[in-house]
Design brief:
9% helix
């Protein structure tokens, strides 16, 4: 017994000596410049939805915290890109923080070093997280141009604290009503495999989706793999000047599988190669409301090869696309190039080629000013078919005037040639021109520009909605529609307006309610002098 007592005392003494050697770390600048520092321990500090010590809390916030299951430590651990005993990499800590912040059930995440042990050259890592409210009576709505769209249901984005998502919806929009049941797991059993199951029963048909994927979840991921199958049956509608002009039925079948591997990976850049195949056919049929014919059926099944090159240069910014939330924006180059071989032995209508490319690059113009850009090009060649091409370019310039106000300018351009009839671009309503009804103009070519003044108030409604304001000017045009009637307008449209933004800051969906009143500056027959828009979306 005495021997055991002495042994216990010795262990306690050794632990005390070791603990005294570990000091609080105020900044990573205090770490020594050596590459063999190891991670001794990982601690978790998961916070509930609301901080009940803050002023303004009442029974609703207490009930929300009481009824909410906080994200489990094991769920957080499964997303970590490091483990106890690993060599410390500050880049991995930052990448893990971004990965955690991308999970919709977390409002914020922070991964930091809490202690440094100089004798053993070890560190303790602290993972802090702040939950969103994840059990939602789901209500999305939109009203513009005299058309109301909404969805009601229930969604759980953090089922029992595991990060899994379950959703049941009833939705009505301008084209259909229906029910939706879906389940998704962003990280199954900590394997970095994700899965999604979805079934929808709509007034114009049914659809389903099954997908399982192990993506390049980190910049140094050595490989990726994915499989997806999807079927959609729906009724498509065409519009002119915001009025319905044609209807027809559509059936779309999609199956894709791919395998990818890393050609080169470092801390801040990667090159990857992916190869796969897809089966893609779409068929169209008349119904009782078909008046102006149908698009031709098509099958674009293909084998494809894709090259990816990306750089990791992230910054944590605020008030760019949202407000009062951290936004991780990559200022490195991101480029993909895909070459697909359309082949008749897979079912394609004719042999041919598809070439597509995407380029993303963001710049810091000066302190407080940023330019975000994204560009897409797609070209298709098939025997006995016209050459089809699409180009799109998106530019967003944001300049912070003060901590509570900013200016934003946006320009979007789309140019198409010999496009498929059911894929023509639409302009109006939420698609660029807020003073005009949905689907007001249509064509193969489109441009839209807008300037916006944004004001972020310190106000909060019951600590549930943060309040912002916006004033805007829009201009745009869609044209070159081979199927439009001679009465259709393709003039340049202008509009001005303003509105309120209500951000559900503590919601896992992060939606923002837009309440806008806009006035068109061009007189058009049958067009209301004012347009009121109410909708929920994720951007300012």
């Amino acid at each position: 017994m005495r021997g055991l007592t002495l042994l216990s005392a010795a262990c306690l003494l050794a632990s005390a000596v070791q603990a005294s050697d570990c000091q609080l770390l105020e900044s990573t600048d205090a770490l020594p410049e050596r590459g063999d520092i190891r991670i001794r321990s990982i601690d978790f500090d998961a916070s509930n939805v609301f901080d009940l010590d803050e002023p303004g809390t009442f029974w609703l916030h207490r009930f929300a915290n009481y009824s909410h299951i906080i994200t489990r430590d094991e769920t957080l651990r499964q997303d970590l890109l490091f483990a106890e005993g690993d060599r410390l990499s500050l880049a991995e800590l930052e990448e893990t923080e971004r990965l955690l912040r991308s999970r919709r059930y977390l409002r914020e995440a922070k991964v930091s070093i809490s202690h440094y042990c100089s004798e053993t050259h070890q560190v303790d890592v602290l993972v802090e997280s702040w939950d969103n409210w994840s059990l939602l009576p789901k209500i999305d709505f939109k009203h513009e141009g005299g058309v109301s769209q909404y969805s009601i249901g229930i969604a759980e984005d953090n089922l029992l604290g595991t990060g899994n998502q379950l959703q049941l919806d009833y939705a009505k929009d301008s084209e259909r009503t229906g029910y939706l049941l879906s389940f998704a797991s962003p990280n199954m059993f900590g394997s970095h495999w994700s899965s999604a199951l979805q079934y929808a029963d709509n007034s114009d048909g049914e659809s389903y989706l099954f997908a399982v994927e192990r993506p390049f979840y980190r910049i140094s991921s050595p490989w990726a793999m994915g499989f997806e199958v999807q079927k959609n049956k729906e009724e498509l509608r065409e519009y002119q000047r915001g009025e319905e002009s044609n209807r027809y039925d559509s059936k779309r079948h999609w199956l894709q599988s791919y395998l990818g591997f890393s050609l080169y990976a470092s801390t801040y850049s990667a090159q990857r190669l992916l190869l796969g195949f897809r089966l893609h056919d779409q068929q169209f049929a008349n119904n009782a409301d078909t008046q102006n014919g149908l698009p031709p059926d098509r099958d674009l099944s293909a084998l494809w090869l894709e090259y990816q090159w990306l750089q990791s240069d992230y910054q944590k910014l605020y008030q760019i696309n949202q407000f009062n939330r951290t936004e991780d924006i990559n200022f490195g180059w991101q480029w993909t190039l895909q070459l697909a071989r359309l082949t008749d032995w897979l079912g394609a209508d004719a042999n041919g080629w598809q070439l597509s490319s995407r380029l993303e690059k963001n710049w810091t113009i000066k302190p407080g000013s940023w330019l975000l850009t994204e560009h897409h090009i797609k070209q298709q060649w098939q025997s006995d078919e016209p050459s089809r091409s699409e180009l799109s370019s998106h530019w967003l310039l944001v300049h912070h005037l003060t901590e509570q106000s900013s200016l934003a300018a946006r320009f979007h351009l789309e140019l198409g040639r010999d496009m498929y009839r059911d894929q023509l671009r639409q302009l109006g309503g939420d698609n660029g021109m807020r003073a005009y009804p949905l689907y007001f103009q249509r064509g193969q070519k489109l441009w839209v520009a807008s300037g916006e003044y944004r004001y972020y108030t310190p106000w909060s409604i019951l600590r549930l909605f943060d309040v912002g304001f916006a004033g805007f000017v829009d201009a745009g045009r869609a044209w070159d529609d081979p199927w439009q009637s001679s009465e259709a307008s393709d003039k340049v449209l202008f509009g001005v307006g303003g509105g309120v933004r209500l951000l559900s800051k503590y919601s896992s969906r992060g939606t923002m309610v837009h309440l806008d009143l806009a006035k068109p500056l061009r007189s058009e027959p049958g067009l209301d002098s004012w347009q009121f828009r109410a909708m929920a979306k994720r951007r300012f």
